[in-house]
Amino acid sequence: MVKFTRWLIALPLLASAHSVNTAVESRQNAFEAIESLVDEAEDLLDAREIKWQKLLAVSAQLNAQGDIVLNAFPKGSHQNSRAKPRIWEKWGHFEGMMSQMDQGFKLLHKGSTTQNTRLALQGLEAAADTCRSCHRSYRSFW
Ligand code: HEC
Predict the structure, then answer these.
(1) Residues with Cβ within 6 A of ligand 1?
(2) Cα distance between residue 133 and residue 97, in whole Å
(3) Which of 10, 12, 56, 132 is 20 to 30 A distant from 117 in Cα terms?
(4) Ligand 1, from 19, 22, 31: best to mutate by most atoms within 8 Å of Cβ?
């Protein structure tokens, strides 16, 4: 019985440590993917003849990775990561920046669907504007 009780206490602790690590890993992977997908989208939009099908696929992936990031900052999950603890003190501001990035990806996707270069560029730029400013405030330097 003693053993059983101990398990009841230990299990939720294990579960939450595990889910925090999973969140850190999944957001880092998502950000890595976002970085190379943004580069890819820039190259595609730079080309004289835009490959719309390819751009559509890239922007769909950006939206998917953006969704992962949106849900991968559980409270206090700064350990073993470059996320600064102040994220959760300024959650409203941080969340606003995440959704600005997300809105940009949505606009890029809309521009890709309608083959509207200007709209697609506008979305991509709006998203790319958020990278540096968020990192400056909320990502540690090591
Ligand atoms: C809302 C804030 C925010 C925005 C917007 C943001 N990032 Fe980040 N980014 C972070 C934080 C915080 C980390 C550190 C995550 C960690 O270590 O757990 C990070 C980490 C990264 C990493 C490193 C992943 C790793 O393995 O350590 C890359 C690459 C990256 N971001 C690229 C981008 C790009 C490209 C954009 C813009 C399109 C962007 N980020 C937008 C907050 C942001």
Answers:
(1) 24, 27-28, 31-32, 34-35, 38, 81-83, 94, 97-98, 101, 127-128, 130-131, 134-135, 138-139
(2) 9
(3) 132
(4) 31
Note the pLDDT tens digit of each residue in 28-52: 999 999 999 999 999 999 999 999 9
Where do the structural domains in the chain lie, given as residue ranges?
2-138
CB of 124 closer than 8 Å to CB of 42: yes
Provide the CATH topology of domain 2-138.
Answer: Four Helix Bundle (Hemerythrin (Met), subunit A) (1.20.120)
- Pull the structure tokens for residue 89: 């003190």
**Residue with structure tokens 């939009």?**
45
Mean pLDDT of the chain: 91
Query: What is the average per-residue pLDDT within 113-142?
Result: 96
Give yes or no for residue 3 having a pLDDT over 60: no
Average pLDDT over residues 79-83: 94
Counting ligand 1 atoms within 8 A of each CB, the residue from 103, 139, 142 with the most, and so the one to mutate, is: 139
Does residue 10 carry a pLDDT above 80?
Answer: no
